[in-house]
Design a protein that fits this description.
Blueprint: E1 21-22, H1 26-32, H2 38-60, E2 80-84, E3 94-98, H3 107-127, E4 139-143, E5 152-154, E6 159-161, H4 177-190, H5 198-220, E7 230-231, E8 246-247, E9 256-257, E10 262-263, H6 279-286, H7 288-301, H8 308-317, H9 328-343, H10 347-358
Parallel strand pairs: 2-4, 4-6
Antiparallel strand pairs: 1-5, 2-3, 5-6, 7-8, 9-10
Helix pairs in contact: 1-2, 3-4, 4-5, 5-6, 5-7, 7-8, 7-10, 8-9, 9-10
């Protein structure tokens, strides 16, 4: 049964905490829907329709107390469950791998299971966080959602992964940073609650890209200099001129394929900020600016990026002082305050200040 979409005069207004957050920008799917290849166009149109329905469902569900920090649990406890949606519409589907169970024959199930465990461990070991809510919330993820579904999302309750169409997209568990990206939307939901619209929405997307990249680096034990800083490397099939969905190191270079709408439109500085009403005000596009700022901070500090650079970003979203409608400038100021509070006004603070200046965002607030 299809959920009715908004009627004329009924506008979906994002709320703090509420977020139907996808990894693939809608403008990419819209371009694919115009493809001359019927397999590609049909899959893209079906994905867009599915996303519109799911977003409207998420909008209609009230988020119960998501802005209230949970009391820390005594002991971190990982509890994850992977479900199989069997290419249907119903979620979550059937349990196929509960926590602690042995690997199964389905690679999608095992990759989702491992990625959730890895991301849980990043937050626990690097930042002392107990799951996404800080209080050992069980982690649920569904694979094999719909047929040829070209996306992955967090819907406020669980992570969901499509298989891709096999023409343009591979399955959405193929890159560990994709589950980590979606899981981080849950962390943001329970901490800063950034509204998924305009600059606060772009920050929401950027934070997921940042910690998605950090999860991959954490798994590979890579320094900031060694990391590729790509989000979704391997998600595109070899027929597509693309290395990934996004690049934190060099926004605007992740892909350049006419089927995807041409060149990656992400800007790396405010001079190229994109004003648009599409994609909730350009949340997947303008996230390139804070993404690049984080890359500059991480490489400016050096070493393992999840340690100091990641700590500054984590302190910022968990400070309780960030407005849900925060602008890039608000966030820049908050990261400077977080850096000064934890490390003083030394190397780390200077790296943050320089990074925001380089992307055209003023974070300086009278020193």
């Amino acid at each position: 049964m299809h959920t009715p979409l908004p009627q004329d005069g009924e506008r979906r207004v994002p709320k703090p905490g509420n977020c139907f957050c996808t990894i693939v920008p809608p403008f990419v799917l819209e371009r694919l829907a115009e493809s001359d290849d019927p397999k590609v166009s049909e899959s893209a149109r079906a994905t867009l329709e599915a996303d519109a329905e799911a977003a409207f469902r998420a909008f209609r569900v009230e988020s119960p107390g998501l802005m209230t920090p949970a009391a820390p649990a005594a002991e971190p406890r990982l509890e994850r469950t992977i479900f199989d949606a069997h290419h249907g519409l119903g979620l979550p589907g059937d349990v196929v791998r509960p926590d602690g169970a042995d690997p199964v024959a389905d690679g999608c199930v095992n990759r989702a299971y491992d990625a959730l465990g890895l991301t849980f461990n990043l937050y626990k070991e690097a930042y002392g966080r107990n799951s996404v809510d800080g209080n050992n919330m069980p982690l649920d993820a569904s694979v094999h959602y719909r047929r040829s579904y070209n996306n992955a999302f967090w819907d406020g309750e669980r992570m969901v992964f499509g298989d891709g169409d096999g023409q343009v997209f591979n399955d959405f568990t193929v890159a560990v940073d994709i589950p980590a990206h979606e899981m981080t939307h849950a962390v943001t939901q329970f901490t800063a609650g950034l509204v998924y619209q305009d600059q606060s929405g772009a920050l929401n997307e950027s934070i997921s890209d940042v910690f998605g990249s950090l999860a991959k680096q954490f798994a590979r034990r890579q320094t900031a200099e060694q990391a590729d800083w790509l989000i979704g490397a391997g998600i595109f099939t070899p027929t597509v001129q693309a290395q990934a969905l996004r690049s934190l190191k060099s926004p605007g270079t992740a892909f350049n394929d006419r089927r995807l709408g041409g060149k990656d439109p992400q800007p790396d500085n405010m001079a190229a900020f994109v004003e648009t009403s599409q994609d909730d005000g350009g949340v997947h596009t303008n996230s390139g600016i804070p993404n690049h700022a984080f890359y500059l901070v991480a490489t400016g500090i050096g070493g393992f990026a999840w340690e100091k650079a990641g700590q500054i970003w984590y302190d910022t979203i968990t400070s309780g002082e960030l407005d849900p409608n925060a602008t890039f400038q608000d966030f820049a100021r908050a990261t400077l305050a977080a850096a000064a509070k934890r490390y003083g006004k030394g190397l780390e603070y200077e790296a943050v200040l320089k990074a925001w200046f380089e992307v055209g965002v003023s974070g300086n607030n009278n020193g």
